[in-house]
Design a protein that fits this description.
By secondary structure, the protein is mostly helical. It has helices at about 5-40, 45-65, 70-85. Helices cover about 85% and strands about 0% of the residues.
C-alpha cells in the first residue's frame, strides 16, 4: 500500500475508473458473444440484429476510451465479415 498521499488518491481514482471501464468492456464482449452465437445458428434476421447491437456497444466503448478506436473497428470488421459469410 502506498504511503504518499497523492498516490493513495491516484489508486482510488484508478480503481473507480477500472470499475467504470469494466462495464463498457464487459457489455461489448457479451454482445459480441451473442452475435457470434446468432451467426452460428444460421438465422439471418436475428444475427443482423445481434451484430447491430454489438457494433453499437463497440462504438460506445471506443467513444468512452475503454477500447482504442482501431481495436473497435477491427472487431466490427471481423464481425461483419462473419455475418456476410453466412450466405
Amino acid at each position: 500500500m502506498a504511503n504518499i498521499k497523492s498516490q493513495i488518491k491516484r489508486n482510488k481514482q484508478n480503481e473507480k475508473k477500472r470499475l467504470h471501464n469494466r462495464i463498457y468492456r464487459g457489455s461489448a464482449r457479451t454482445y459480441i458473444r451473442k452475435a457470434l452465437a446468432a451467426i452460428e445458428t444460421g438465422n439471418k434476421e436475428a444475427a443482423e440484429e445481434e451484430v447491430k447491437q454489438a457494433v453499437r456497444s463497440l462504438d460506445l466503448a471506443a467513444q468512452k476510451g475503454v477500447l482504442h478506436k482501431n481495436n473497435a473497428a477491427r472487431r466490427k470488421s471481423r464481425l461483419m465479415a462473419r455475418l456476410n459469410s453466412m450466405e
